[in-house]
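re: the backbone from monday

yeah here it is again, tokenized this time
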């Protein structure tokens, strides 16, 4: 299909398409799929990151449950959001998302099935120049994960966003991504931690925002304690 906009002039997250585009490129050069690469990386990390779970893992998959309509309202209020999320059909349908066929489907990007520990382990690893991700990508490409590749108003997110190669970079330098429904993960170079929050209750990101504030408040208090003690002793 022809591009909806002039290439290079508009920024918009491709929530339901870019995984398939990447798979197409890999297939064209005879490389393993996104699913296969992710499975291999999971084995190295000792994590469970799946684009399509194995049949014996189906009982482990939590069933998502919408908590109102707030998790979709803002996206479906504009044409680009509807175009991104309503094709293919079923991405916002709870019954589809609870089905074994969806759990086993190879659907790049939004189709990732994982747990919080595994996702946090991935972000911790990709933050390290000696990590498995860095070795797979090579130093030059790995460093691009932390550099801004595009910035501007994202037509899908309806907000000003800085994108690296696949991740958002916020004003504090945190590298990560949030998913529709409330799940989110990131690495914070300022505080030196990786965090992942996954939920079966589909809602807004308010919950993970409160969690992040609590974590960073605790880290600031812990880092400040030795200095306070030194001043007290001095």
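seq for it, each position gets an aa:
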């Amino acid at each position: 299909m022809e591009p909806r906009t002039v290439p290079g002039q508009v920024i918009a997250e491709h929530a339901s398409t870019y995984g398939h585009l990447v798979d197409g490129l890999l297939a064209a050069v005879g490389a393993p799929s996104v699913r296969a690469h992710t499975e291999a990386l999971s084995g190295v990390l000792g994590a469970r990151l799946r684009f399509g779970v194995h049949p014996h893992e189906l009982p482990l998959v939590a069933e998502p449950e919408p908590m109102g309509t707030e998790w979709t309202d803002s996206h479906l209020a504009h044409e680009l959001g509807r175009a991104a999320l309503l094709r293919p059909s079923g991405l916002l349908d709870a019954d589809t998302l609870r089905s074994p066929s969806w759990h086993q489907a190879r659907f790049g990007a939004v189709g990732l099935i994982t747990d919080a520990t595994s996702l946090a382990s991935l972000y911790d690893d990709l933050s390290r120049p000696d990590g498995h991700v860095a070795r797979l990508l090579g130093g030059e490409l790995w460093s691009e994960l932390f550099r801004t590749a595009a910035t501007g108003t994202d037509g899908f997110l309806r907000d000003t966003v800085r994108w690296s190669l696949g991740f958002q970079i916020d004003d504090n330098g945190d590298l990560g991504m949030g998913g529709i429904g409330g799940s989110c993960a990131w690495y914070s170079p300022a505080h030196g931690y990786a965090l992942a929050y996954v939920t079966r209750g589909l809602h807004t990101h308010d919950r993970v925002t409160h969690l992040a504030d609590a974590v960073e408040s605790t880290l600031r208090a812990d880092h400040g304690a030795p200095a306070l003690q030194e001043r007290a002793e001095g």
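The domain at 18-55+64-233 is CATH 3.40.710.10 (Beta-lactamase). The longest strand covers residues 150-154.
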